[in-house]
């Protein structure tokens, strides 16, 4: 069965690039462009993994990640925080909301695909 990945980012270009790479790696991809829609889609679709930007309209990625990780029904979905923010404090906050990985933009597509595969087989 093909794994479903939810990409939540407010930049259409990023969603497009990531979607093309994930589809080439044989994943189904769904997306949302703000935190609130991302949270709703995660709960409705129950993706196998979420790639989540931090700086989002309506609800930031930390909040989305924390809400999902503290919900019994969704806590086991791996979440990759995917952001331009690369300060130690940002990564620490990502750990506090129980993110499974933290990848900074600009990114190497191979690094992202490799992390996705690693988390889905863990």
Please tag this protein with its features.
alpha/beta
How would the blueprint of this fold be written?
Blueprint: E1 4-8, H1 12-24, E2 28-32, H2 35-45, E3 49-52, H3 61-69, E4 79-83, H4 88-96, E5 101-104, H5 109-121
Parallel strand pairs: 1-2, 1-3, 3-4, 4-5
Helix pairs in contact: 2-3
Descriptive overview:
It is built from five helices and five strands, in the order E-H-E-H-E-H-E-H-E-H. With 122 residues, the protein is an alpha/beta fold. It has one domain (4-121): Rossmann fold, CATH 3.40.50.2300. The chain has a five-stranded parallel β-sheet with strand order 2-1-3-4-5, with helices on both faces. Strand 3, helix 3 (61-69) and strand 4 (79-83) form a beta-alpha-beta unit. Helix 2 runs parallel beside helix 3 (61-69). The longest helix is centred in the first third of the chain and has 13 residues, at 12-24. The chain is globular.
How would you briefly describe this protein structure?
This protein is α/β, with parallel strands linked by helices and 122 residues long.
């Amino acid at each position: 069965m093909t794994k479903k990945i939810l990409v939540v980012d407010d930049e259409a270009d990023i969603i497009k690039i990531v979607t093309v790479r994930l589809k080439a790696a044989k994943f189904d991809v769904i997306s949302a462009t703000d935190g609130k829609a991302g949270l709703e889609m995660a709960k409705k679709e129950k993706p196998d993994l979420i790639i989540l930007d931090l700086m989002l309209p309506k609800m930031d990625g930390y909040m989305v990640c924390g809400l999902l990780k503290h919900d019994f029904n969704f806590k086991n979905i791996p979440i990759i925080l995917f952001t331009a923010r690369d300060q130690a404090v940002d990564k620490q906050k990502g750990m506090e909301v129980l993110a499974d990985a933290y990848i900074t933009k600009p990114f190497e597509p191979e690094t992202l695909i490799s992390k996705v595969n690693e988390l889905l087989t863990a």
